[in-house]
Amino acid sequence: MFFEPREYDLAGRITRLTTRHGSIETPYLFPVINPLKQEVPLDKLLELGFNGLITNAYLFYKRNKGVAKPIHDELKWSKTIMTDSGGYQVLIYGDVEVDNKTIVSYQRRIGVDIGVILDKPTGNRASYKEAVESIYETYRRAVEAAPLISDSDQLWVLPIQGIPYNELVERSSILAWKLPVYSIYAIGSPTVLLEKYSYSKIIESLILAKRLLPPGKPIHVFGVGHPMALPFLVAAGGDLFDSASYILYARDDRYMTETGTRNIRDLHYLPCNCPVCSRYTAKELLELPRQERTRLIALHNLYMLSKELKNVKQAIMEGRLWELLEYKSKGHPSLREAFNVLVKYRDLLKQYNPLSKPDTKALFLIDRSSTRNPRVEETKTRVSNILGDSLRNKYIIVIPAYRKPYTSQDEYLDLENNLRGNNSIQVLFIHPFLGVIPPGLSSTYPFYQHESRFTTRDISPMEIGSLLSTLSRQGAKKIIIVEASWFTRKLYTKILRAFPDLRDKIAIYRIDEISSQIPL
User: Fold this and answer.
1) Distance CA 505, CA 424 (A)
2) Using CA atoms, how far apart are residues 128 and 413, in angstroms rounded to an integer?
């Protein structure tokens, strides 16, 4: 099996991708190297943990005048090599001096581990008609190449076209299903969008493609090379990425950070502890010869990419990828926009997201956006299903949850003895982020295994009212809310204003008033 998933969180996953020259752990980014000029020594890539690289088969073909020289020997690299076919040149220049069959056969003969057909990228400024043409021309070439690769032990990539048109991305993904000979699918030509920090459209296209492509095969996103985008693309289903940004940025003295790119000339301090930044100041880097400065900034950029991938993997292991996205989304407006796309498609993310897992850590509930965590929403759904019809014709006493374990709260202890054996009454806790909590589940994940700090500004009358409406629809005779902690009469008034149909169904009392309101 060439692709073995090991851990999941949202639509992200940690897997082992096996090629002819070793295994790669995904999520993984292939550094792009120029076969004619290697400004960062390849042994340095390996030292940084990059055990696979991508280069351009078209440029390799041109340099060698079509002579098939073993690419691993030529690059002096014994690990995984992926090659692009010249699709990027097609995107930029409109055409290349080689056809699809020729470049596919050439990639076979030079012994690449992962090859790509010569696709026809859509391009970010393509009209709808041009985008349709790119989809069907890429599919035609994929069909054309299929007999050439069907007996190969190499992995072959089929690009998905259609960005920025959602319907065409879906159409291209459906066509890809018809060609099982391809091992990897790729989201094509997002480079210009990435350069403008327009991550939201790429993420949306990736999610839509992920939904329709075979789940047992990896998805590559071409041209992604900034640490700020990687967590969001992984969460949307991206497994593999590639970029030359680390060196392209370095040539312009551009220095990667977690939330953007800065020119080294604008920095008084280097906000990083990598070996480059630990040794040099910004001023010292600027005083170096151009070539050496470029190499060092490129190394820093690679460190940042490697660090971000490790952060993402650790978040997946701990079940905290959503929390990482929440944190990152506050670092740049484009990231907030990207996060909102994931919120929009969170029902699709739930299809891949495990409710819990052995290594899952306590949830961090930061603010109202935490309620959109698919794990939180799925927990609410499961609780609602567990309660089912058990609330029908009962008095429901709702106690605001504010101190773990909730069953140790004074309000609950005051009621416990009086309620024992009374089958007409059901006590439930309610949490502003986690929703309704039956006492019997209050010590289970995530009701006990979470950390939250909230103020009245974080509490949504609409969301609390919606929870109470659900209890009402489940057949509750009357819902009595205990006035305590964060559940105030002011909040109660706001809920009634938003949900006037609840006026005859809910009421709020102090704990010492409850016994006079229902048959205890």
Assistant:
1) 16
2) 65
- The count of other CB atoms within 10 Å of the CB of residue 453 is 9
The single residue listed with the structure tokens 């920095």 is 267
Query: In terms of Cα–Cα distance, which of 157, 174, 163, 158 is closest to 205?
Result: 163
Q: Which of these, 388, 412, 413, lies nearest to 474 by C-alpha position?
A: 388
CB 203 within 8 A of CB 238: no
Q: Are 29 and 241 in contact (CB under 8 A)?
A: yes
Q: What is the pLDDT of residue 92?
A: 64
Catalytic position from the list 9, 43, 73, 84: 84
Task: Give dist(CA 54, CA 463) in Å, integer.
Answer: 48
C-alpha 484, offset from chain centre: 38
40: left (phi over 0), alpha (psi -120 to 50) or beta: beta
pLDDT score recorded for residue 414: 86
Over the Cα atoms of the chain, what is R_g?
28
Residue 369 DSSP code: G
Q: How far is CA 315 from the centre of its chain?
A: 11
Let me know how many helices (H) and strands (E) the chain has, helices first: 21, 20
Report the C-alpha gap between 53 and 127 in whole angstroms. Answer: 33
**pLDDT tens string 365-416:** 988 888 899 989 999 999 999 998 899 999 999 999 999 999 999 999 988 8
Q: Using alpha carbons, select from 334, 377, 335, 371 the residue that is nearest to residue 355.
A: 377
Instruction: Judge whether 300 and 272 are in contact, CB under 8 Å.
Output: yes
Q: Indicate the helix (H) or strand (E) that contains 452.
A: strand 450-452
d(C-alpha 128, C-alpha 217), whole Å: 28
Query: In this predicted model, which residue has the larger pLDDT, 356 or 501?
Result: 501
Q: Say how far apart CA 237 and CA 215 lie, in whole Å.
A: 10
515, 395 Cβ separation under 8 angstroms: no
Longest CA span, the chain? 93
Global pTM?
0.92
The secondary structure of residue 266, as a DSSP letter, is G
501 an active-site residue? no
**What is the tens place of the pLDDT at every residue in 176-224?**
999 999 999 999 765 555 666 678 989 999 999 999 999 999 999 998 8
